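Changelog entry

Holo records now carry the ligand SMILES as an explicit input line rather than a separate metadata file. Below, a converted record for coenzyme A, shown in the new format.
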Amino acid sequence: MRAHDTTLRTARLTLTPLDPAADAGQLHRAYGDGEVMRWWTRPVCADVADTERHLASCAGRSGARLWTVRTADGEALGMAGLLGEVEVPGLTWLLRKDAWGRGYATEAATAVVGHALGDLGLDRVEAWVEAANHRSLAVAARAGLSERARIAQHYAHRDGPHEAVVLGRPREEEPRTTLGVIAELPVRDVAATLALLGAALGARTGFAIGEPPEFAEVALTPWSAGPRFRLAAVGRRQRVSPVRLHLDVATAAGPLHRRAVAAGARVDGEPTRQPWGRTEFVITLPEGHELTVSAPA
Ligand SMILES: CC(C)(COP(=O)(O)OP(=O)(O)OC[C@H]1O[C@@H](n2cnc3c(N)ncnc32)[C@H](O)[C@@H]1OP(=O)(O)O)[C@@H](O)C(=O)NCCC(=O)NCCS
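Structure line, unchanged by the conversion:
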């Protein structure tokens, strides 16, 4: 059954409301292809019935609007649309392999974005694309989306987590006044803390002021911007109120945990799977600050 009844037309394509029962047969050429499904949230679909079940579950989510992407003569090339049950309207697209490299995905995505921000009156659309999925990143960029953030994801059928780019396009451009939040931890020994975090987490010193350093930046990326926090020296007699930081990582928790233990950091217990879908362990600094290293479970 179709979840909506809007057909979209572009110069070369017709996007018809996706009907899982009627369209699964043709769309299985995409959903049954390991190369096409390499980046998908689930493994390749085993057969047409599996494709139909997957399409029905996607199309059945509240707010979902999916289209079957067709050539002018009605041949189904793939799917494009809006995901259901997401906080910010999210885009999705996929084409069977022999339809790649002809601009069809960009044409379909642009139509969906135009419809979402136009007729549907949505304020913004988003796409989460794995950082290594260059073809999909290019589609998002050509459909007018730009990078807004990065997140760590872990699909149940994959061995480990991966980094995803959150791309977005607002209906009207809006200024972004806050680009980051930087925490400052009071510590007794800035240099020793920098050394410990370097060994335990591979953190780098962004800057260090004073000799020995009184104030420094702990950079958790090799690049000149990105996740970081600061350390400020406090005197031996000053009271320190411990704080807790969550470090959102896109690698498996196990190897990081082993590295932290080997570095001599105070690590409490093994990585633990949390009910909120993360695997976490805690590094406690001498002042009692807790750094929760949090990987997607
Ligand atoms: C993501 C995906 C849909 C992109 O398909 P695509 O065909 O690469 O994307 P486009 O439609 O934008 O096509 C662009 C290519 O068509 C070429 N092209 C040929 N004729 C064109 C035309 N008339 N207009 C525009 N581009 C044209 C472009 O030069 C470009 O070529 P390039 O790949 O060599 O740079 C496809 O790779 C796919 O299905 N991947 C698997 C599923 C997936 O990852 N989905 C996204 C999950 S986030």
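Spot-checked after migration. Residues 36, 39, 93-95, 100-106, 129, 133, 135-136, 138-139, 142 surround coenzyme A (CB under 6 Å). The CA atoms of residues 71 and 282 lie 53 Å apart.
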